[in-house]
Structures are given as C-alpha cells and as structure tokens.
Amino acid sequence: MTAVTTLSHPLPEPLVELIAERFRVLAEPMRIKLLDRLREGDATVGELVAATSSSQQNVSKHLRVLLDAGFVGRRQEGNFAHYSVADESVFRLCEEVCGGLRRQLAELDAVIAEGTAR
Amino acid sequence: MTAVTTLSHPLPEPLVELIAERFRVLAEPMRIKLLDRLREGDATVGELVAATSSSQQNVSKHLRVLLDAGFVGRRQEGNFAHYSVADESVFRLCEEVCGGLRRQLAELDAVIAEGTAR
DNA sequence: GCAGTACACAACCACACAGTAGTGTAGTTG
DNA sequence: CAACTACACTACTGTGTGGTTGTGTACTGC
C-alpha cells in the first residue's frame, strides 16, 4: 500500500462533502477531549464524564457522533458502555494539525524577532 | 525531526481549542474545493469563482477564513489577488481522512460480503 | 475625470448545532 | 417487585455561521 495515494483532480463533489463532514466531526473541542482521553485506553461513559468535566448527556451525545463517524467503537458490558478508539488515524490527523500550528508559531516568532532585532 | 511528535496527556485546554478550530476551518465543502483547486497552482479570485461555481462574495469570504488560518497565502498584483497554498500539510490531512474513509468502506464491504455469501 | 473590472466588507436571513433539562430504558441489587 | 445505576433519547434554546445581497475600494483603460 502506498503511503500517500494521490487523489484525483478535481475531487468529485460527494467526496468533498465526505471529507468536510469528517473534519466537522473533529471540529469540536469536546470531541477532541474525548478522543484524547480514549488514547489512554478504553473508558466508560462515566469515566469520560469525569475526564471532561461535562454532563453525562453531553458526553453521550458527542460519543454518538464519534461512533457514527467510526472514530470510536462501543462495547456494552452490563450497565456500562465501554468506548475505545476505532480509527487510529485521528491521532495522526491531530499531530499533523499540531505540526501546522507549530510552523505558524515559528513564523510568527521569526517575524517578531526580525521586528525587535533592529 | 521525528516523524511523529508525541503529544502530551491530557492535552491542555487551549491546545484542544486550537486543534478544533483548525479542523473547523476545513469542515466546509467550499473551502475543501478551494484548496483542491489551489493544488493545481496559484489562482485569482475570479478563477476560483469559476472553479467552484459559487459567487465572488462567497469565495472571497471563504478565502479570508483560509487566509486567517494560514492555509493559504495572498499576493496582490494590480487588480488581481492571487491565492496559493501556504501549508502543504492540508493535503496530507485530506489524504489521511480519505484513508479513513476507504478503511470504513472496506469494513462495510466485508460485512456485506459476509452477509450475502451464506 | 469617468467607466469598467476585480475584489473585500457589512448586513441580513436561515439553518445547523452545542449544551441543557427532562425522560426513557436496560441492567443490577436487595 | 421495587429501587438504584448507567446510559441514551427527545425537546428546547441560544449562538454561530454559510450563503446572498448590497455596497465600498482600489486599480486599469479611455
């Protein structure tokens, strides 16, 4: 498998929608937090509520979105629902984003340095 | 440079916001289309309007969002504003997303195959 | 100067969605 | 069965924003 599959040009409309939809799922701090916690390992809804300091209803709702998007998996065990990361690529996405943020910060830093050095 | 920088746990709140904000910029089909077109090379607003079949005002607005996020750069030349991709990582992000989509499709395919084979 | 072109900004509307409150539903315990 | 726990679903509200319309601004050519 090629590490980077070249995408067609122009991207067909439905694919564009799918891509945007997927980004939209990740465009929410609460959901990033949930994924961040799940990085440590599986967790029940209660544990995720504790980790995010949010309401149970809210956590449950966002978990549903992540589940529908296929980013997480769900396993029922008695009264408890255990959630886990189902698509490790989300972490690569976050790292790539953070890389972009770092690059921007570096550029800003360079500009400031140039501005103050003279 | 390490290919993958391990992120801290848990992610600090401001970083979570920044990550989500960055995903939010990409969570819009129109902006994906604009970036897709810019992949071919620089383009004026007029060219981008033609490529997206949208209004000039709308394209201009979305370009502003992409510019503020640092995904694209702007160069004025007479009456024309030339936009270009400033952060190539967006394409890796899109490819990663597409990879996730493909994986999901494959899983669905497997389920369907199993369901119809018996 | 005047007209025309290329782009950006502001105001508006309509829709989507995050968060909350309340309720429903399994499963467990006594 | 009754009470409790853990979680999901529904309805509602406020906020944010995508798209459109209208206008402003800067540059070009006559």
Give the helix/strand layout:
The structure is a homodimer of 118-residue chains.
Chain A lengths: L12 H14 L2 H10 L4 E2 H8 L3 H13 L3 E6 L2 E6 L3 H29 L1
The structure holds a DNA duplex (30 and 30 nucleotides).
Helix and strand run of chain A: HHEHHEEH
**How much helical structure, as a percent, in the residues of chain A?**
55-70%
Report low-confidence residues of chain A grouped into runs of 5 or more. none
Distance between the termini of chain A: 51 Å
Largest interface, counted with CB-CB under 8 A? A-B, 45 and 45 residues
Query: What best-fitting shape of chain A do the alpha-carbon axes yield?
Result: extended
Write out the strand line-up for the largest beta sheet of chain A, numbering strands in chain order: 1-3-2
Query: What is the arithmetic mean of pLDDT of chain A?
Result: 92
Strand content of chain A: 5-15%
What is the rounded Rg of chain A? 19 Å
What is the structure about, briefly put?
2 copies of one chain form a homodimer. By secondary structure, chain A is mostly helical.
Tell me about this structure:
Two copies of one chain form a homodimer. Chain A is built from five helices and three strands. By secondary structure, chain A is mainly α. The first copy, chain A, has a three-stranded antiparallel sheet with strand order 1-3-2. The longest helix of chain A has 29 residues. The first copy, chain A, is extended. The N and C termini of chain A lie far apart (51 Å). The model of chain A has no long low-confidence stretch (mean pLDDT 92). The interface between A and B is large, with 45 and 45 residues. Chain A binds a DNA duplex (30 and 30 nucleotides) through α4.
